[in-house]
Amino acid sequence: MVLVGPSGFGKTTALRMVAGLEDITSGTLRMDERVVNDPPPRDRNVAMVFQNCALYPHMTVAQNIGFALRLRKLPKQQIKAQVRETGQLLGLSDYLNSKPGQLSGGHRQRVAMGRAIVREPSEFLMNEPLSNLDAKMRVQIRAEISRIQRRVGVATLYVTHDQTEAMTMGDTVAVLHMGRLQQCDSPRSLYAHPDNPLVAAVSGSPAMNLYEAVVSPRPTRSDRATRAWPCRRRSEMAGRCCAATATARSLSASARSTSPPTPRRRCRGRP
Amino acid sequence: MPGTTLTADVELIEALGNEMQVHFLIDATRACSELARAATETHELGEILSLQAGGAKAEGVARVSPRSQLKVGSRAVFGVDTGRLNFFDPDSGSAIWS
């Protein structure tokens, strides 16, 4: 599940409420049918991955990954085995004895993931884990996180402001704006049937083209196809002009000129 | 099919290799209801786009084949898949389904 929306509109707050770092003033938070509004963070068994990794700089990668296990006072052998296994899963086997400072941003983010995975939480909470990486690394780690998440099979709440991340990583994407949930759906549905222009703006790049238009009846056709043409000022209607995202693949362009568009068709919910 | 095309002036072309993003101007008014404005502002290009809002010409972006021969400054005709248009109520911002 991905929470997406512009900065400052409540994604991180929502995530922190799930983690128990923020008090919930109203509403209920359920995990596996259990109401968890009140239990302190440590009793919720969630693991967080942050944007800045938050690794311990003086510890090796292995020590960083194994930290939570050491706190649980597990036997050394078991910690070692689990750390090795996690390292393998994340492609960190060669770096287990390095310090975080010696690693690239991508590797550091993997260590942060490892630290979360090794705790075997019931839920991962990820807050913009890719924001500090360069573009190429971001694409690579993005795919890796999705792959690892599928393999580990742990429910993940992922917060991002990046629409590509949201669309590629989410099974379900929740679009937040000004603290309000705009739409919660599969990436496909968000793209094809956005509930409002805000959702349209975060599903697809480049963003949807929005124009004012009058939609009026066209007697010759009564099928489901509706048309909107950008025109007249007063009766505003915004249509997803296919020139943008939705139909780009079928879009043809040429440098000839044609007659201006004429058809009009009424839309059921016309204001 | 007549009536399912948009005639636009090509303003800028971004060649990305796998596709071209063509920025164009058409005779239209960019929707500028509150929600639509908020929507454009959440997009990276929001500021640039909002400058166009309310003007006689409205900016838009199209993705086209990288093999297209479009040139900056030329007039382009875009085919529109009208079955995939989306409609929103300008007051509430809600989608309108047919």
Write the layout of secondary structure elements.
The complex is a heterodimer of chains A (271) and B (98).
Chain A: E1 2-4, H1 11-19, E2 30-31, E3 34-35, E4 46-49, H2 61-71, H3 76-89, H4 105-117, E5 123-127, H5 135-152, E6 155-160, H6 163-169, E7 173-177, E8 180-185, H7 187-192, H8 197-202, E9 209-211, E10 213-214, E11 229-230, E12 238-241, E13 253-254
Parallel strand pairs in A: 1-6, 1-7, 4-5, 5-6
Antiparallel strand pairs in A: 2-3, 7-8, 9-12, 10-11
Chain B: E1 5-15, E2 20-27, H1 34-42, H2 46-52, E3 57-64, E4 75-79, E5 87-88, E6 95-96
Antiparallel strand pairs in B: 1-2, 1-4, 2-3, 5-6
Helix pairs in contact in B: 1-2
Any overview of this molecule?
The complex is a heterodimer of chains A (271) and B (98). Chain A is of the alpha/beta class and 271 residues long. Chain A has two domains: 2-192, Rossmann fold (3-Layer(aba) Sandwich); 206-271, no CATH class. Chain A is 31% helix and 17% strand. In chain A, strand 7 and strand 8 (180-185) form a beta hairpin. With 98 residues, chain B is an alpha+beta fold. Chain B has one domain. Classes of the chains: A alpha/beta (271), B alpha+beta (98). Chains A and B meet through helix 8, strand 9, strand 12 and strand 13 of A and strand 1, strand 2, helix 1, strand 3 and strand 4 of B. Strand 12 (238-241) of chain A pairs antiparallel with strand 5 of chain B.
Alpha-beta content class of chain A: alpha/beta
Rg of chain A (CA only): 24 Å
CATH homology superfamily of the largest domain in chain A: P-loop containing nucleotide triphosphate hydrolases
Which pair of chains forms the biggest interface, and how many residues does each contribute? A-B, 64 and 62 residues
**Helical coverage of chain A, percent range:** 25-40%
Contiguous runs where pLDDT drops below 50 for at least 5 residues of chain A: 221-271
Share of helix among residues of chain B? 10-25%
Which residues of chain B form runs of ≥5 with pLDDT under 50?
44-54
The sequence of SSEs of chain B as H and E is: EEHHEEEE
The number of E-state strands of chain B comes to 6
The strand order across the widest sheet of chain B is 3-2-1-4
What string gives the helices and strands of chain A in order? Answer: EHEEEHHHEHEHEEHHEEEEE
> What would the principal axes of the Cα set say about the shape of chain B?
globular
CATH fold field value of the largest domain in chain A: Rossmann fold
Count of structural domains of chain B: 1
Number of helices of chain B: 2
Q: In terms of quaternary structure, what is this?
A: heterodimer
